[in-house]
Amino acid sequence: MKMLRKLIQAPSIEPFTVEELAAHTHADDDHHDYLQSLVPRARKRFEQRSGRLLVEQTWQFALPKFCKEIHLPYAPLRSITSIKYINNLGQLVTIDPSEYRVIEHGLTATITPKLGGQWPAVGFKVADAVQIECVFGHAAVDDNAIDEVTMLDQDKYDLAKQAILVLIGDWFRNREDTAPVKLYDMPNAFKAIADELAVELL
Question: Cα separations (Å) of 153 from 10, 26, 148?
Answer without folding.
Answer: 21, 28, 11
